[in-house]
Amino acid sequence: MKVYRSNRAGIKILRTYDKLLEHWGCEKKERDIDTPYGFTHVIEWGDTDKNPLVLFHGVGDDSALMWIYNAKALGENFHCFAIDTIGGPGKSLPGDGYNKTFDDVKWIDDVLSKLEIEKAYFAGVSNGGYIIQLYTLERPDKVLKAISLSCSVPTGPNKNPLKTMMKIFLPEALFPTKKNTEKLIKKLSGRNYRVFTENDTIMNHYRALLVGFNNMAMAYHKVRSFEEDEFEGALNRIRDKVVYLVGEEDPFEKLGGKEALISNNMNVRFFDDAGHGLNHELADTINEKIISIFKET
Questions:
Q1: Residue 162 domain-assigned?
Q2: At what angle do helices 200-212 and 178-188 cross, to 10 degrees?
Q3: Which of the residues 54, 79, 123, 274 has the least number of beta carbons within 10 Å of its own beta carbon?
Q4: Does the residue 1 lie in any domain?
Q5: Is the entire prediction scored with pTM above 0.90?
Q6: CATH code at 102?
Q7: How far apart (Å, rounded) are the C-alpha atoms in residues 105 and 200?
Q8: Domain assignment present for 167
Q9: Euclidean distance between CA atoms 18 and 174, whole angstroms
Q10: pLDDT tens-digit profile of 214-264?
């Protein structure tokens, strides 16, 4: 499964990925973990004497972009590990085992084992928020506490993420000119969209992703509804461990995500004037919130 549409596209994305890392404002190291599904790229930083915090980005982005405004603050309080989702953009490299048998939970098990992490805090954005919900459900003993940002529970009107993504990302994502890229950012964001549009490094990388990432490479990551028989009682089992942080202007929340969170009585905190890029748009506020939620554990 090709992650990038061409070698040239991949080279540009990885070059701009490294440019983003230069702006993190903290020391870090990168490593590749060999798993049955291929190599998983991990960025590690922070205080090694503190509890581990494992981070997952969303679909169509990567660790370098996702945590650019959060890395420094989180690293001062945790031993951080940002995972490039295998099959997604970034530096992870799918192998022959990345196929229809792929299992998110087993993949994370293997990565954590090789990182020698027995228990950790977890946080994820968008699809990364779904992944940490699933992992909390399946491996509660490994999760100290989890934070799902810009995400909802996969139930009811919110259980068809592909259909929702098409409504939001089209037509701009099909024709990612410079103008359309900016238009898409504004559609996804609240009033603080300039944290994206006025950062040339971010915009160059994001446009390179829109042009060069092969979205079909994420096809083996299946989002399953927590209403399926195998997940009976799922929401009750994650309610105490997962906190949801959501922007009121997030288009995904307006299309059913907010309703699902409220109707299922999940532990959610809403933020005014913020969209899907919540941890970028309100970085200082969200950094403080993440730290305080985990320190309460």
A1: yes
A2: 100
A3: 79
A4: no
A5: yes
A6: 3.40.50.1820
A7: 36
A8: yes
A9: 25
A10: 999 999 999 999 988 889 999 999 999 999 999 999 999 999 999 999 999
